[in-house]
Specification:
It comes from Streptomyces coacervatus. Belongs to the cytidylate kinase family. Type 1 subfamily. There is one protein chain. It contains nine helices and eight strands. The protein is an alpha/beta fold and 220 residues long. The protein has one domain: P-loop containing nucleotide triphosphate hydrolases (Rossmann fold). The radius of gyration is 16 Å and the shape is globular. It binds cytidine-5'-monophosphate. Cytidine-5'-monophosphate (C5P) binds next to helix 2, helix 4 and helix 8.
């Protein structure tokens, strides 16, 4: 079979990562978490004392960190300059700063190049999840899925992941991040015209996975 390229976009807390990983594993495809790459570059900026409120300072060093993503869905990895950052990129500090860093065009150009090269080198195909994969990174993807869910469902899922985090605070933080991601100038979070929209509010993770697997199989 020819390599199949699947783009899965949507806001935070819609089940993008869990769905994308499971679909890739079931179909024997590679998996790329593009949010992890933006988190990794944000982690590097914070660690190197770059002023997050200064886009030109961010732009000036956007090419410096070396970001490497491992694309096995059974155990995706992410390193920055050889350092394993899988844990540190999930802190609230990184979550609250990533939108500002990912809005800088020089950061997006850089990360988008990495994403395209990983997608074209995946032997059997790849599931790529993010915000602008269907619209900007891989506009010729074989299948584009846009996942949505109510803010309540998204906050509940995310606070479950963060084990006991306050649902209200999580909801506010998510809404703020989505608003920033959707309103930025360079490749904002958006549904591609030819994407299939799946509202996951009342679906189990298993149902979402089955739905996407079926959609991929129709394309193969
Ligand atoms: O998916 P995740 O929530 O880990 O993404 C973290 C952040 O990375 C998003 O809030 C967004 O600012 C940025 N991002 C992006 N484009 C992508 C993926 C993520 O701008 N394709």
């Amino acid at each position: 079979a020819k390599p199949v390229i699947v783009a899965i976009d949507g806001p935070a807390g819609t089940g993008k990562s869990s769905t994308s990983k499971a679909v890739a594993a079931q179909l024997g495809l590679s998996y790329l978490d593009t949010g992890a790459q933006y988190r990794a570059i944000t982690w590097w900026m914070v660690n190197n004392g770059i002023d997050i409120d200064d886009p030109s300072a961010i732009a000036a060093v956007a090419g410096k960190p070396e970001i490497v993503s491992g694309t096995d869905p059974a155990g995706p990895t992410i390193t920055v300059d050889g350092i394993d950052v899988a844990g540190p990129i999930r802190t609230q500090e990184v979550s609250s700063k990533v939108s500002a860093v990912s809005a800088v065009p020089e950061v997006r150009t850089r990360i988008t190049e990495l994403q395209r090269s990983l997608a074209t080198s995946a032997q059997d195909g790849i599931v790529v999840e993010g915000r602008d994969i269907g619209t900007t990174v891989l506009p010729d993807a074989d299948l584009k899925v846009f996942l949505t869910a109510s803010p309540e469902a998204r906050a509940a899922r995310r606070s479950g992941e963060l084990k006991g985090a306050d649902v209200h605070a999580t909801r506010e933080a998510l809404i703020k991040r989505d608003a920033a991601d959707s309103s930025r100038k360079t490749s904002p979070l958006a549904k591609a015209d030819d994407a299939v929209e799946v509202d996951t509010t009342d679906l189990t993770l298993q149902q979402v996975i089955e739905c996407v697997v079926t959609l991929v199989e129709e394309k193969r």
